[in-house]
C-alpha cells in the first residue's frame, strides 16, 4: 500500500489534472458524448482520441494546438466486449473516464514526458521509486528523454515491443510508438503468489504493476500494404484511466473502493438490505453490487447523451447492460424496479463536472424504470424457457442454451449457474464461451474501422481547404473545384471551396440541384459532410469535369418544402411539451420535402384527443404567421436563455439559435422558413411506438397535407355512395352493417362447430385400437384454433377412455390437438405426443398430460401425419 500521499477526492484529482495542463496553455475541451454523433464506425465513444480522429486523418483543420479533457467512455459490445467480466474483479468497467492531454503539431515527446512526470511526482507526490516507464523498442528518443530529462531510476526505464508500446487507430491510418507509466503496488498486490514459476514484471500477467498513463506519439501513417510513412505533422495523444488514478491516489486496492463507487454501493446495500463485501475481504463476494454500480453509471451517461435501449446496434448493448444489472438485482432480492433509484446518486457524484446528468436526470430515471418494468415481463418468459431447457436434460445445460438465455432473455451466466445448481445441474461453460466468442467475432467484423474515403480515387485540382457553407444566404453561387472522383457510369463526387448545398445533418435531408459551367453539367442528388468538407454526389449529364469555376445552384422549391417541414418540427416539439409534459424530448427526426418524422420520449400511446390538441396548437401558430430569426450565440448563454438543446447532439462553443418569435427557441443548423404562415397546413398521419419510452409521429404539411385531406374527402364520398347514406348517416349505417356481419359470422361459426361435433362421432366410429386403448385420429374443419379446445373437451367426454388427435387446416396453417383421458395419463403424455407429430408438418408444441396443442406450417402433409400417428402413439405406449 502507498502511505506517502494524503487521500484526495476524485473531484480534486480531475480538477488538478485539467488545471495542470490549463496552466500550460492547453484549451479545456468538453467531453464528447458517449453516443458518437458523426462516426458510424463506433458503437460508443471508447477513447479520448475519438473526437479528434478527423484531425489525425487530415479531414478537419486544427482550431487549437493544445487540448486537455476528461473524456467519458463506454466499452461494451464490439471488440471491447468484456461485459461478463465486469464485477468479478476491481478494474473491469463498461463506463470509465479517460484523462488526456493533446498536442496537434505543437509540442512533442520532451514536453509530454517531462509534464507527465511533474504531475505524477510533484503535484500528486507519487513515490518515484515505485514508478516505471516503458518505451517502444525502436524509440531511442523517448528512452533518452526519460533518462536525461527526469530523475526516474534509469533501471526503471524498459523497452517493449509492438504489443504493449505501439498504438494504431486501425489497420491503416495514423499510428506511432507510445510510452507507458506504471506503478509498483508491491508484492501483496500480486494475484499469482501461489505460482512458484511466476515472476512479477511490468507488462506481466499479475496485478502488481499497473499502467497509470499512456503517452502516444503519433508520427507515422500505415498504408494498405502495412508500410509506415512519416507524417508531416506530429501529434501527442495521452490517456490516463481516471478510475485507476483514483484507486492509487486514494490508497485503495480496487476501483470500486474509491469515492466514484462507494456511494452507489452504499445505496444498493441500503435499498436491498444486503451488505456489500469488498473484494479485498472476499474475492467471490460483492459481484452483484459491483455489476449494478458499474452498469448504472454507463446507463446514466448513455441515456443523458441520447442513447436509448432497443433491439439493434448500440441500443441492444444498452438493453443488455440494463438487463444484466436488473438480473443481478434479483440476486440481491430486488423484485420491483430499483435501478432508476440509483440515478440520483450517480448525479450527486458526477453531475457537477458532467452537467448533462443533472439536466437529464428525470429523463434517465423514466427510461430506466420503463425498461425495468418491461424486462420483468421478459424475465418471466426467460424463466419459462429455462424450465423448458431443464426438462430436456438430467446432467447439464448445453452451452448454446445458456448463451441463448444470455443473448435473448438477458440472463447473466451467473444467474443461469445459480438456477442450474438449484436443480442439481451443471453448465457447459466451455460451450457458452464458444458461442460468446462467435458473437464477438461477428461484432469485431462489423465494427472494424477503416478510413471512410480510402476506396475513393480522388483527383485534386487545388489546395484542399474547408468547404464554406453559404446556403443560409444564397441559393446560387460561383464555386471552385478542389477535388473530384468519377466512375465509368459518370457518377461523381465533388468537393468545392464553398457551396449553397445543405449537407445532410440533424435529420434534414441534403439539398439537390445542379453544378455547371460551359463545359460540364452535373445533377446533384446528395451532399454529405466529411470533417470540414462537403462532398457533392451526382451524375455528370454532359461534358467533362474540368478545373474552371462552376456555378452551384440548389432547387429552391425542394429547399422550401424541406424548410417547411423543418420549421414544423420545431412547432411540433413545443406543442408536444405543452400537451404531454416537459419530459418530452426529441429523440430523432427526418425532415423530407414530402413529409416529416419526429421521434420523442413518452411512455404511453398518445391519445386521439391529445393528437388533436397538438394539431390545433401547431395550426394556430401557423395561422399566427410568426416570424423566424436566427442568431449565433455562446452555447452556455443560449442554454441559459432557454434554448432547447437536442439529446446527443454535438455542439461547439458557439451555436446557431433558431427562434420562432417568442414561442420556440432551439439550437439548430438546418434551413427554415421566414414566417410560419408559409407552412400552410399541418396534419398528423400516424403515431406509433418505436422503442420502450419512444414514440414517433409522422406528419405532412402544405400541399401534401392538402392532397391528404382531398383524398379523405373523395374516400368519404365513395363510402357515402356505396352505403346509400347521407353524410350525417354514414357512421350509423356502417356500424349497423358491422353488427349484422358480426351476427352472421357468429351463426356461421356455431353451424361449423356443430358440424365438427358431428364429425367427431364419425371419427370415433373409425377409431384405431392399440392393445386395449382406443385411438381417434382425423381431420376436422373449424374456423378458429380456439374451437379446437372445445372439440377436445367434447372428444374426451364422448371417448370415455382413449387418446384423440385432431387436425385442422386454418388459414394455410395446421392446428393440432391431442387429448388423453385421465385414466391413461400415467401411460401416455399428450404434450409428448403433440410434440412428436407436430414435427411432420413443420411445427412444434406441447402442453399438459391430458391436453396439448401445436401448430404447423405444411398443410400438404396432413394426410401423412394422420397415417403416421398410430405408429408414433404405439411406440410411446
Structure description:
The protein contains 23 helices and 34 strands. The chain has 877 residues and is α+β, with helices and mostly antiparallel strands. Strands 1, 2, 3, 4, 5, 6, 7, 8 and 9 form a 9-stranded mixed beta sheet that branches. Helix 12 packs antiparallel against helix 13 (399-409). It is globular, with a radius of gyration of 34 Å. The model is unreliable at 1-6 and 446-453 (pLDDT under 50).
Stretches with pLDDT under 50, minimum 5 residues: 1-6, 446-453
End-to-end CA span: 71 Å
What is the approximate shape? globular
Query: Rg, please?
Result: 34 Å
Helix content: 25-40%
Largest sheet: 9 strands, mixed
Structural class of the secondary elements? alpha+beta
The total of beta strands comes to 34
Separate helix tally: 23
Provide the β-strand percentage band. 15-25%
Average pLDDT number: 88
Fold topology:
Blueprint: H1 10-22, E1 27-28, H2 53-56, E2 66-74, E3 95-104, H3 109-123, E4 131-136, H4 140-149, E5 157-160, H5 162-165, E6 166-168, E7 173-184, E8 209-222, E9 228-241, H6 242-249, H7 262-272, H8 287-304, H9 313-331, H10 343-350, H11 356-359, H12 361-391, E10 396-397, H13 399-409, H14 413-422, E11 426-427, H15 429-447, E12 459-460, E13 468-469, E14 476-479, E15 481-486, E16 491-496, E17 498-499, E18 513-517, E19 520-530, E20 533-543, E21 550-554, H16 556-580, E22 586-591, E23 596-601, H17 608-623, E24 628-634, H18 635-640, E25 654-660, E26 664-667, E27 682-691, E28 694-701, H19 702-723, H20 730-765, E29 768-770, E30 773-779, H21 786-799, E31 803-810, E32 813-820, H22 830-838, E33 844-847, E34 851-856, H23 862-876
Parallel strand pairs: 1-2, 4-5, 10-11, 13-17, 30-31
Antiparallel strand pairs: 2-3, 3-9, 4-7, 6-7, 7-8, 8-9, 12-15, 14-21, 15-16, 16-20, 18-19, 18-21, 19-20, 22-23, 23-28, 24-25, 25-26, 27-28, 29-30, 31-32, 32-34, 33-34
Helix pairs in contact: 3-4, 7-8, 8-9, 8-12, 9-12, 12-13, 13-15, 16-17, 20-21, 22-23
Amino acid at each position: 500500500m502507498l502511505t506517502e500521499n494524503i487521500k484526495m477526492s476524485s473531484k480534486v484529482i480531475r480538477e488538478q489534472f485539467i488545471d495542470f495542463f490549463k496552466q500550460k496553455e492547453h484549451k479545456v475541451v468538453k467531453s464528447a458524448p458517449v453516443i458518437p454523433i458523426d462516426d458510424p464506425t463506433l458503437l460508443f465513444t471508447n477513447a479520448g482520441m475519438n473526437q479528434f480522429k478527423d484531425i489525425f486523418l487530415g479531414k478537419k483543420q486544427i482550431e487549437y494546438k493544445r487540448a486537455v479533457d476528461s473524456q467519458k467512455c463506454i466499452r461494451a459490445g464490439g471488440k471491447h466486449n468484456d461485459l461478463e467480466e465486469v464485477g468479478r474483479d476491481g478494474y473491469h468497467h463498461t463506463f470509465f473516464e479517460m484523462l488526456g492531454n493533446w498536442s496537434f503539431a505543437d509540442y512533442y515527446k520532451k514536453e509530454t514526458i517531462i509534464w507527465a512526470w511533474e504531475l505524477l511526482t510533484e503535484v500528486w507526490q507519487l513515490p518515484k521509486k515505485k514508478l516505471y516507464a516503458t518505451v517502444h523498442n525502436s524509440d531511442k528518443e523517448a528512452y533518452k528523454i526519460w533518462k536525461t530529462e527526469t530523475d526516474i531510476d534509469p533501471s526503471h526505464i524498459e523497452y517493449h515491443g509492438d504489443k504493449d508500446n505501439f498504438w494504431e487507430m486501425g489497420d491503416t491510418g495514423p499510428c506511432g510508438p507510445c510510452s507507458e507509466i506504471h506503478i509498483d503496488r508491491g508484492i501483496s498486490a500480486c494475484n499469482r503468489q501461489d505460482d512458484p514459476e511466476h515472476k512479477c514484471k511490468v507488462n506481466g500477467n499479475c496485478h502488481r504493476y499497473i499502467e497509470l498513463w499512456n503517452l502516444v506519439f503519433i508520427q507515422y501513417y500505415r498504408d494498405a500494404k502495412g508500410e509506415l510513412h512519416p507524417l508531416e505533422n506530429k501529434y501527442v495523444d495521452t490517456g490516463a484511466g481516471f478510475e485507476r488514478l483514483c484507486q492509487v491516489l486514494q490508497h485503495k486496492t480496487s476501483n470500486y473502493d474509491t469515492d466514484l463507487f462507494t456511494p452507489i454501493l452504499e445505496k444498493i446495500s441500503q435499498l436491498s438490505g444486503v451488505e456489500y463485501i469488498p473484494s479485498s475481504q472476499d474475492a467471490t463476494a460483492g459481484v452483484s453490487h459491483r455489476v449494478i454500480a458499474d452498469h448504472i453509471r454507463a446507463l446514466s451517461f448513455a441515456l443523458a447523451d441520447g442513447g436509448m435501449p432497443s433491439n439493434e446496434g448500440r441500443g441492444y448493448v444498452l438493453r443488455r447492460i440494463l438487463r444484466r444489472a436488473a438480473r443481478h438485482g434479483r440476486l440481491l432480492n430486488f423484485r420491483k424496479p430499483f435501478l432508476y433509484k440509483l440515478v440520483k446518486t450517480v448525479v450527486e457524484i458526477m453531475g457537477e463536472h458532467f452537467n448533462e446528468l443533472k439536466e437529464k436526470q428525470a429523463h434517465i430515471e423514466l427510461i430506466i424504470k420503463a425498461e425495468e418494468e418491461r424486462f420483468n415481463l421478459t424475465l418471466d418468459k426467460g424463466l419459462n424457457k429455462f424450465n423448458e431447457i431443464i426438462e430436456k436434460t438430467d446432467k447439464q445445460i448445453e452451452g448454446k442454451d445458456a448463451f441463448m438465455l444470455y443473448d435473448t432473455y438477458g440472463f447473466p451466466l451467473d444467474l443461469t449457474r445459480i438456477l442450474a445448481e438449484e436443480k442439481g445441474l451443471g453448465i457447459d461453460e466451455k460451450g457458452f464461451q464458444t458461442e460468446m466468442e462467435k458473437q464477438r467475432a461477428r461484432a469485431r467484423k462489423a465494427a472494424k474501422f477503416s478510413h471512410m474515403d480510402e476506396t475513393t480515387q480522388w483527383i485534386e485540382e487545388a489546395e484542399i481547404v474547408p468547404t464554406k457553407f453559404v446556403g443560409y444566404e444564397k441559393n446560387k453561387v460561383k464555386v471552385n473545384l478542389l477535388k473530384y472522383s468519377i466512375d465509368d457510369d459518370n457518377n461523381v463526387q465533388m468537393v468545392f471551396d464553398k457551396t449553397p448545398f445543405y449537407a445532410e445533418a440533424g435529420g434534414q435531408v441534403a439539398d439537390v440541384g445542379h453544378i455547371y459551367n460551359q463545359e460540364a453539367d452535373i445533377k446533384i442528388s446528395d451532399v454529405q459532410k466529411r470533417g470540414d468538407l462537403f462532398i457533392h454526389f451526382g451524375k455528370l449529364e454532359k461534358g467533362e469535369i474540368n478545373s474552371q469555376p462552376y456555378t452551384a445552384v440548389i432547387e429552391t422549391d425542394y429547399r422550401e418544402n424541406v424548410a417547411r417541414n423543418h420549421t414544423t418540427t420545431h412547432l411540433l416539439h413545443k406543442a408536444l411539451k405543452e400537451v404531454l409534459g416537459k419530459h418530452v424530448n426529441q429523440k430523432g427526426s427526418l425532415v423530407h420535402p414530402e413529409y416529416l418524422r419526429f421521434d420523442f420520449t413518452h411512455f404511453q400511446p398518445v391519445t386521439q384527443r391529445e393528437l388533436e390538441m397538438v394539431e390545433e396548437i401547431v395550426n394556430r401558430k401557423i395561422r399566427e404567421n410568426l416570424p423566424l430569426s436566427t442568431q449565433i450565440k455562446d452555447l452556455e448563454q443560449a442554454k441559459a436563455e432557454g434554448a432547447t438543446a437536442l439529446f446527443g447532439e454535438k455542439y461547439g462553443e458557439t451555436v446557431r439559435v433558431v427562434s420562432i418569435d417568442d414561442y420556440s427557441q432551439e439550437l439548430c443548423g438546418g434551413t427554415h422558413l421566414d414566417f410560419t404562415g408559409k407552412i400552410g397546413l399541418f396534419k398528423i398521419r400516424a403515431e406509433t411506438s418505436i422503442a420502450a419510452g419512444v414514440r414517433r409521429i409522422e406528419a405532412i404539411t402544405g400541399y401534401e397535407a392538402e392532397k391528404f385531406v382531398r383524398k379523405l374527402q373523395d374516400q368519404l364520398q365513395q363510402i357515402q355512395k356505396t352505403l346509400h347514406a347521407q353524410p350525417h348517416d354514414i357512421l350509423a349505417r356502417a356500424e349497423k352493417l358491422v353488427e349484422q356481419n358480426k351476427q352472421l359470422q357468429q351463426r356461421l361459426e356455431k353451424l361449423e362447430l356443430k358440424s365438427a361435433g358431428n364429425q367427431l362421432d364419425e371419427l370415433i366410429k373409425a377409431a384405431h385400437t392399440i392393445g386395449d386403448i382406443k385411438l381417434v385420429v382425423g381431420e376436422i374443419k373449424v374456423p378458429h384454433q380456439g374451437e379446437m379446445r372445445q372439440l377436445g373437451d367434447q372428444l374426451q367426454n364422448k371417448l370415455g377412455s382413449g387418446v384423440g388427435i385432431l387436425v385442422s387446416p386454418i388459414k394455410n396453417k395446421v392446428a393440432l390437438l391431442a387429448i388423453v383421458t385421465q385414466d391413461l395419463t400415467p401411460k401416455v403424455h399428450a404434450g409428448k405426443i403433440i410434440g412428436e407429430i407436430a414435427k411432420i408438418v413443420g411445427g412444434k408444441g406441447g402442453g399438459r398430460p391430458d391436453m396439448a396443442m401445436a401448430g404447423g406450417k405444411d398443410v400438404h402433409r396432413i394426410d401423412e401425419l394422420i397415417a403416421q400417428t398410430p405408429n408414433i402413439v404405439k411406440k410411446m405406449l
